Amino acid sequence: MVYISGGNELLDPIAIFERLGVKAGARLADLGCGGAGHFVLPAARIVGDKATVYAVDILKSVLQTVTSKARLGGLNNVKGVWANLESYGSAKIPAENLDFALLINILFQSKQDENIIKEAVRLLKIGGKLLVIDWNQNPASFGPPSIDRIKPETVKKIARDLKLELVDEFAAGIYHYGLIFKVN
């Protein structure tokens, strides 16, 4: 498997969505989606055309790529949203509206992890779930430098401080960990 675009090719979105409980009709945002649409496109198929999947990124070119891929694939339920996730309130998605928020392979790219997680939580309704997947500490010949990787314990502490409940912890493939939190 080749490491490209944050390593998302190493992750199986369908298995992850099954574990998360994503179903038809759910409202979901992939925060820091990247241009491949690796999670956005499968999510859009699962939730169906009566629901919305928000593709959120700081790069407008990435959003154009993802929304174009969605249209070409006959998926009209993907909405691109430009946002700097490090700034609270920047994602122009109604607060407390989402069933699921995804933070996949983005926390290692920032030193503002708490702000990013706080922004994700702002978007989730009561009972909504936050999925965090990021690089584990295992050495690999690819991926971000170990010093940039955020430890799951750090994510759990931030989540506790934000009153989130940890409902699942798992190995998301060989190189990543997964954490699922619920808003109470």
UniProtKB/TrEMBL annotation:
CDD domains: AdoMet_MTases. Signal peptide: none annotated. Residues 24-136 form the Methyltransferase domain. It comes from the Bacteria. InterPro entries: Methyltranfer_dom, SAM-dependent_MTases_sf. This is Methyltransferase domain-containing protein. It comes from Candidatus Buchananbacteria bacterium RIFCSPHIGHO2_01_FULL_39_14.
